Input
Amino acid sequence: MDDLQKPILPGKGASDYERYLRTDELLDLQKPPEAMSHPDELTFQVVHQSSELLMKAAAWELSRARDLVESGDFDNTGRLLRRANRMLDYPIDMLHILETITPYDYHIIRAGLGHGSGLDSPGFVALLHIGPRLGEIFFHQLEKTGLAVDDLYRRHAEFFSLHELAEQLLEFDERMQAFRFHHLKLAQRIIGGEVVGTMGTPVEILRQRMEHGTLYKPLWDVRNQITAKMNTGPQKPDGRY
Output
């Protein structure tokens, strides 16, 4: 029994759990108490570091999903997209943790950020990079199948896997917009909406990016098209208009 409790993996740490996850390094990435500008700085760092890890993982799953779409494996693509979308729920939710830092205390922490800005987030930039590439291959596959976006939604039972993929892409697009929205509201709540943020970027820029940040416009536009058609007359039994 004693042998089973002894670590066998290489590295530091008293257990294989610690060695595999490299917890000694991971938990040493935050400032020690004596180096903090404010006690809330630990929360500030942990929230951002956790978000970066989750967005990194989500971007990885999206890149895997892109390869699967290209190979025509739509079922497994949907599985990976669902996983990525669940991962992104947490960075969105953790923005609300930062709202518990008061404006005065935030400005104490902010003084130590240098030119740092959330707009430089490697995780979010990676998502912005893979998102359009994933969309391009999806719409290419849709074209190869001979379907317009409206056809896909009208014949969703017939092309269930592709339809599910479209819906998961929309979920991802919605989460990206939700992150931008809550990031904007966080900035407005902490530093105000009519000021210049870190790196000299006006908070107004966050609002503009949120409003023009749709990744998969055809998947949003088709809702308008479907509603317009349904408003013009009843649908026939075969699903056509």
